[in-house]
Design goal:
Blueprint: H1 4-8, H2 14-20, H3 34-45, E1 57-61, H4 64-84, H5 86-93, H6 97-108, E2 119-126, H7 132-149, E3 153-157, E4 178-187
Antiparallel strand pairs: 1-2, 2-4, 3-4
Helix pairs in contact: 3-7
Length: 209
């Protein structure tokens, strides 16, 4: 079976960007030019969406102190949510060495959610749009691939949805008709995570009889 390393040697362009993208959780203390942020947002806008509604909106934080405050508050709310699941839920969520390590980091780090990234982009959509989660997912992938092409790293942050339960939420000025589905952090990476092996037994061809 051809390994991912060998495959990478035979690809270029868009495919290379897809294979090289990683979830990065350590960033350099380097700001990102607003023009670059706009390029990444534009890439997100090019994603497909149900009935072309383009439901996404972007709320962006670039102030270091504000990002740190949001990270701490979201971390507190998320931790309470995890504790409510009980011991079994905690064990299941930390199953495996990678998740255990991330769990330890979440408890110990001073920036448990945004990992010191210089840019945080909250992505929202209308609450009544039943397809918005899929649309935002495609939008986010476009943005992460665009960032990689432009020399930046990213990480999707699911815990960002807990921002709605924090005392700082009002600072984002998000209307009541919208809710946060995801956040993307981005910046110049200060680590190079290894690729995790991808499953290969999940393709089923349905051929005619």
């Amino acid at each position: 079976m051809e390994t991912l390393t060998k495959k990478k040697a035979n690809i270029s362009g868009t495919l290379e960007t897809i294979y090289e993208r990683r979830a990065v959780r350590k960033y350099k203390h380097q700001t990102v030019d607003r023009k670059i942020i706009e390029q990444i947002i534009d890439a997100g806008r090019m994603a497909p969406s149900a009935i072309n509604k383009q439901p996404w909106k972007f709320y962006i934080l670039t102030d270091k102190d504000l990002i740190h405050s949001f990270s701490k508050e979201i971390g507190k709310v998320a931790a309470k949510g995890v504790l409510k699941t009980g011991v079994k839920g905690i064990i299941n969520s930390l199953r495996g060495p990678f998740h255990l390590l991330q769990g330890i980091k979440f408890v110990m780090t001073s920036d448990p959610v945004f990992h010191g990234a210089p840019v945080v982009i909250f992505i929202t959509a209308p609450k009544e749009n039943e397809w918005a989660s899929l649309d935002v997912g495609m939008c986010a992938q476009n943005m992460m691939l665009a960032a990689k092409t432009l020399g930046l790293e990213t990480c999707p942050i699911g815990f960002a949805k807990f921002v709605e339960q924090t005392n700082l939420y009002s600072k984002l000025n998000i209307p009541d008709s919208e809710h946060v589905l995801l956040a993307i952090i981005l910046g110049y990476g200060d680590e190079k995570p290894e690729v995790h092996q991808r499953k290969k037994d999940n393709v089923i061809y349905i051929d005619p009889l």
